[in-house]
Fold Zn(2)-C6 fungal-type domain-containing protein.
Amino acid sequence: MSERSLSDLQTDVIERTAKASSTASEGIACNACRKAKLRCSRDRPHCAYCRKTGFDCTYESKRTKPGIKAGAIEIVHRRLDELERRIDEQAINNARRDHSSRDASIHGTSDSGANKILALLAEELPKLVNSSQSQVTSTPEHSQRSTKRRRTGGADASDASDHIPSLPESRDLEAVVTNYFFHIHPWIPMIHQARFIQRLEDPSQRTQIMVIIQAMMLAACKYVPNAWSHAQTPPEIRRWVICTAMDSMSIEGQQALVILAFNDIGSGNATKAWSIIGSLTRTVEYLQLAQEQGDGRRRLFSRPYPTLSPTDNWTEVEERRRVFWNVFLLDRFCSVTMGWNTSLTSDDVFRRLPCDGHLWRKEKPVLTPYLGIWDKAKGRLGNPISSVSRYPSPTQMTTRNGEDHVQMMDNNHLITTVPDPETDMSNVGAFAYNIEATESMSRVTSYFLQQNINVRDNHEIGAWLTRFKELDLRLVHWKLLLPQKWKANPNLTRHVPLMDPNLTTAHVTHNASMILLHQPIAYPPLHWAFRKRLPSTCSAEACYLAGIEIATITEKYLGKSPLGSPIGIQFAFCLFIAARVLLIHSRYTPGILLPPEFWSLHQSLKEMSRRWRGLETLPASPVSINESRRQHQLSSTEDLFAKYATRLKNLYDLCQDETYQLDVVDYTNEINHSSGEADFGTNSWSNMAHDTTLQDYHVSQALVSDLDTSDYATIPLLDQTFMDMDRVIAFDDGSMFTVDLDPNNTTW
């Protein structure tokens, strides 16, 4: 084809296109006539209406589709977010003013105005959304992006740790930290208050301790009015703390997780805490917190990688030591309450006990003894207890020739020994004694209650009863070796205004350990053919007295402790064990009525529940929108103390049926530790122990016929000294539960 022919063809195409466009536009009215809804004369270049009005006469062949302009919905959502933020700030400012009637009326007026604005926006927003649907066909991608509301709180788990939650104003933050050290710190003493305040005031240290601050917010905000006024909710803060603490191994991360686990268990969310505790028990080993720093007696050919840098600051070393012991207590609490194996064993732990909190606060370096952790392999039935500990226990004494020796009773006289610096307890405080008492309770469950024995085997029964006597003697021995300054005040020369929380918990734990140890002997199953040879009367009396004293100690402590101060989770468990054994005692002992101390313990648990919830139990006050949402989230879960109280009332109701039988040692299945509200009214819970007991009764008939009672002649007899032992710690005016310090100083 020639160049001329190609040029003619292109010209012809252009002319046809222009003619078609002109023909299509001839039937279209101009923009001015269309807007005025008039019939257009379609004159060119100006129609009659445009010539008359002077408007520009423009013809557009392509009409624009109706609908909201691009980005309009996004702008509306941004304005909504800004409006919500301003309303929230206004509510916070009003709440910080005086709670007088004048300010209350101003707050009510502003709230009503804000509500009107929100109501108006709620009416207009559906119209905007509905009208925007016509725009989807024209701009689908942009419309889909604009109609999605931007997330202002809570991100995905993948980037949860990238967005640091906001903090309240400095005045509220100071109140949160103060309330943490006043309410929470006594039960988990692991943060040096003076050092923490210094780091908090140092901008360069603020990022490093942010995870601790957020954990403190979760635990202590319920004791500070309107402290939860920032945008994040408790689940979002908790998720951020876990992600940040797990992202790297640090002391601050472990401290935050300890606070989190303590708060979860007390709030009734124990199932969320078990995985955290499991992680903590492994991480403290990776951080080498389970081993004493710089001890020359343990040298390894292949040393582990040092995750933490060593420090010469004794105060920091003691803080690390206390972090480990708090993880240790959580591990033991988890094991005792759930019936699981302990994670921190003698192969892992080589640690000195924490010093007296008064000395730590003054940053005065001292030396404390090691805690001897029992070896599970050597602690099997048949092995004497004196050989199961790798290191000397603080409650042991050492003879002059250096042989480790447990102080025993010989003809009602104590064997005189010389104290060894490795076992000198003069520098330890109440927290260390609480650790010892908790480990004693763990030994009762691990080395006695969880031992598998064949009730047909005379040798195994003898070994099991020997272990019972050894543990009983250990508990009595621990009570006898309490420091003289913490023993009873015989002349009642001083009045005790306050009771130390850790020392009180240690004594209550000791009494609860006595109950756990003696209740299988006091109330043996029917299928034990040797049950009549057991000192059941002596053990039942020990259980009863221990339960009564726990009720007395608790009542005194609640009366002497600061009003509104919470109680530790282990304390609550001991109360449940005490009340439960009083109920069992009244069921199994003929002619014994349920003592009033049972209801005293029940009421104490309800009071502890009220204290744990903090300001949520106080009369309603002006709060922000986020504060109301937080209170609703927390109140939907029954806390640990309320669960124990509910279960005790449920057991009491079940025991009104004379055919119902309680399983004495099955306390681990009494409580539903899930985050939902406890439900103990089902047949599966209420009749479990009854069915088991009836089954044991039928089994007993076969066992008795197979065994000869003469086979039990070799079972160790329990002499008069065993019967006369003083096992239970009594209140005695509270002198045994405090330390010689002013109320402003604590001894943790």
